User: Which sequence fits this backbone?
């Protein structure tokens, strides 16, 4: 089973390219990975990936313009599949993060450009890379494990 969604076209009086750019930015972070967990904390929604990377969608609200995550549906039976794409339906109000077996995560999004295009809208997408393990290089011969002999 292969899932794809036709690319939606929004009128230039409703969107200046922000919503397609928002979906593309999320895709750049999640495609090629598996979802380990998702969490909603206030205005922030965090997707943790198999690499340890955390991708956060933060609701925005700027006067009469906004983007809010209303609901999400994770399909636990499909999280073992690598994400192959993101599609939208219903005027960018339904986002589909999908793999070869169908939607892995569905997002219900409310958005408005407000007074086009004076105010900002679209999710604020934040990315936290996993902590990097730093290995210190030693010069000379390393001591055996458990060797506490001090020089001197």
Assistant:
């Amino acid at each position: 089973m292969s899932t794809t969604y036709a690319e939606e076209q929004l009128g230039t009086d409703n969107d200046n390219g922000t919503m397609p750019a928002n979906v593309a930015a999320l895709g750049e972070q999640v495609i090629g990975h598996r979802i380990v967990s998702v969490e909603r904390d206030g205005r922030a929604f965090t997707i943790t990936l198999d690499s340890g990377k955390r991708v956060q969608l933060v609701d925005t609200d700027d006067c009469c313009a906004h983007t809010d995550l209303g609901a999400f549906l994770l399909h636990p039976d499909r999280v073992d599949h690598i994400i192959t794409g993101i599609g939208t339906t219903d005027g960018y109000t339904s986002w589909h993060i999908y793999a070869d077996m169908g939607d892995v995560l569905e997002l219900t999004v409310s958005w408005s450009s407000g007074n086009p295009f004076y105010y900002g809208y679209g999710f604020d997408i934040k990315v936290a890379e996993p902590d990097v393990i730093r290995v210190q290089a030693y010069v000379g011969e390393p001591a055996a494990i458990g060797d506490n002999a001090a020089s001197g």
In short: Confidence is low (pLDDT under 50) at residues 142-147. Residues 40 and 54 are 13 Å apart (CA to CA). The first helix runs from residue 18 to 30.
